[in-house]
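Why Disulphide isomerase? Reviewers of the renewal asked for a concrete example.
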Amino acid sequence: MLKPFLMLLMLCHLLLNPVQAATNGQDLAFLPEQQVLAQLPQLQQQAAADNKLLLLVLGANWCHDSVALLQQFAKADFQQALQQRFVLALVDVGYLEYGQATANRYGLPLYYATPTVMVIAPQSGQLLNKMDLLHWSNAVSYDLATYQQYFLSHDFQQQFARQQQLLAQISPAQLAPITQYEQQQAATLAQEYQRLGPLLKAYKASGLPASAEFRQAWDEVKALRSAILPKVEQLQQQAIKAEPLPL
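Here is what the prediction returned.
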């Protein structure tokens, strides 16, 4: 009688704690954004209490780089090591219609790639790895050693501190147009996501080769989203050197 009762308790735990359940064993999965958003305060508290970082991934099952990232995360030894350093949450961006609210929560106007890997300091809610956000959009091309070096050895707090030291050299008057530029570009990208999303969904559902319309839309969005953060970094460097900003 005890064994069925224990199984029932385990099932209840999985149902009541879907984010945590989806980060155990081989069951890693992107979950609906509203579901994860509701649990993020609890997950941040858990990370802070356990002296861990919050690892927040925005991705989708149609994205081969997102799938590759989860496959590496699901390898038993690596997953155990990840759990020693992070509390993990996985957000499904759907066909680009979701994910912005999650990005906004941590000071990012939009996500610029799938997958987007956000490392969060749980006590402050600060995004520690903003300038790395495009790196894992090529997740399928990296071997396990690269994953291990970044997620297990990289000093995110030190990286964030260095970035803050650089930004401290920029006056508020110089920083304002850079922030405005990113927000404007993100707003344009959000509109492009709305245009591309239905085309992407139809393409994936059809099982047919990509149409010329879809390929053109995809390439245009990729060019836009891939350029925003490098341009922000360029503008920051120019501001530090007191060069005129080419906005």
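Residues 172-240 form one domain. This is the kind of structural detail the renewal will allow us to pursue systematically.
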